[in-house]
Batch of 3 targets.
Target 1
Amino acid sequence: MTTPSDIIDWHEAMQQCGEDEEFLRELLADLQSEMETQVLSIAEIIQNPQDGPYHRIMRSAHVIKGASANLMCHQLRTTALHLETAARECHEAGGTTSPPAMQQLVQQRFAEMQQAATNYAQFLQTLGI
């Protein structure tokens, strides 16, 4: 079971925002919007893997990782890091010609990140964001 502290370190995030809760809430909403955009992009890439798909997945995961790290959203950051790493390894191993197990790991890591994104969205709903 995921707890709020798995999703965000509220105390640290508040410190990051100068103890301005309204500003933190804005940033969390912005993160949700950016995350939704990147998750949709990754899903489309997985459905239609063309033009260096694993490099593009890696870049999208990197965006989520960085934004979530800045806001102390640990579960999102960790799952995005795992996806970024798997996508990089797959890209370096030949992309769409890499071993199927590597490509499946990217899909597994994406599913884990989608779950973290769902947990994050549900958490924001409890905050009225």
Target 2
Amino acid sequence: MVSKDQYLWFKFKFDFDPEDFDDGEMCALELECAFYEKDMRSDPKFQNLESISDLSRTLVQTRKSEFFPMLYGLICLVLTIPVSTATTERAFSAMNIIKNKLRSKMGDDFLDDCMVLNVEKEYADSISNDEVIEEFETSSTRKVRFS
């Protein structure tokens, strides 16, 4: 019988990317989940964990991550989802700010350049306008001097 926790792991994994596991690996994961559940309930180090990151840390400290590699991999995957989602959301938010109704016909190259400047705001702010003008002047010969 598959427990509720095991079912949630399976559901998460299949919703995330069903091609990661073949039938043999699914069978191995199911067995690993059963052993994991039995082992964790009897180990006092795993009784008062408050978060999934505590679980991951304790698995590594007790070296049980080596005994449950598939489950540990799923836990690591769950821990990275908020980071990867937040980065993507920030990029799309920046793109919506940059490419608005007034600039809807912006070319891809110009949009890319604006996106880099927006995402790397701290670095872009550290460069003065004078440095940009100097670089532009020295990059090729100009008919007009800017400074």
Target 3
Amino acid sequence: MTQAPQQKSFQIAVIGGGVVGLTCAIALQRAGVPVELFEAATAFAEIGAGIGIGPNAIQVLKSIGIWDDVLKRCSPGDLGKQLGFIYRNGVGEHKALHEFPVELPQDEVLGVHRAVFLDALIGLFDPSNCHFNKRCMSIVESPANRQRLLVNFSDGTTHETDLVLGADGIKSSVRRFITGDGDSRVAFSNTVAYRVLIPFAQVQAAGFKTDLRRNPTCFTGPGKASSLSLAMSSDHIIVYPVKEGTVINIAAFSARYDIPIGAANLPEGAPWVEDSSREEVKQVFEGWGPDVEILLDCMPDNLKSTKWSIHVVHPPLETYAKGRVAVLGDAANGMLPHMGAGSGQGIEDAFMLSRLLSHPETNAENLTAVLQIYSDFRRPRAQMVWDGSLAAGRIYDGNGPHGEDWEKVSEDLSPDWFFRPVWRHDFDAEFDSVVAKLREQGTFPQVASKSV
């Protein structure tokens, strides 16, 4: 008979009911940690398109015990062995430039719509601990007990707790408590993404020749000034099949690298997601090769909510924790999507927090030190992925070390930095190091060595 997890004496409030917040709350609840979840919307809902879950994140979901529940909600074609990734020249006849091979047979990946993933998680968390219409406005010391925190919500209500975890996304209000200077640390990345779904049969009928069933494809692009602007933009297009090969998912990116991130932020109140048109996308990618032209011609005339101004956390946070408050996921390390690893990093954050906070030697007196060690270990790894995502986008756009010398771009896409450090991560060894550090600094008691 499985022993019930130890019930902790402290209480946790998770702010944000997206994929990362729910994953964290479920993991904590299963480990016996009292947790309440607060979501700003009227119900659980995810904004965005697909979510990519790589081998590292799948390993975490299996460890938490929710992987099988996620699979039950997915279509048979959503989960598959990683087939590699082909990079092709976006102009001319789309010559293959580089292919990522499959290294290990267990390299599974999950590509699914965010809403589907979230639906799989909703039923795993106690609904009596979910609270909606609760937009966090501020966090202060509790007037009744300075050892506790008071979360203030936009509807005028409050909640007293021992610890707050902010999984409230790129626009995080909890992050402002961490920075303490009123700086949101949100910056426009100077990258726009056009996200469109097209029936595969339609592009086939139009003469599309690139084989997408074997490998997802990145059409790399040259820098140029489009008819929309005299400024130089750098572009690439990611294309892959979804819904068991019946639909083509297109993510067409256009970036400016002559402007530092954060130097040209959108006006206050400007929408981050807008309608677009087929003509606008065609102007951005004018002069590209025949298969790209076919993809764009197959797009609807009017594209609703397809133009995304991608924002990131920048400059990076000096810490993910302050006192008894910590941030995770996009609230901590919101990044560009060019490695498909942002969601995985949020899931890793949730895993580390749940393991630390449920550890037998974590108690109400050492929570501040425990959260700080979470930050000390998670921040460098997540920043490595943040930096890699920026570098990957530059390479795709002809702005990498070899520029538009496409014959040498494969040298820039070495798996030694590109995906191995992300996918090949030993979570148990990492956690052993975390616990050892807590013992070394006196947060956890030293373990007496056994005499021989």
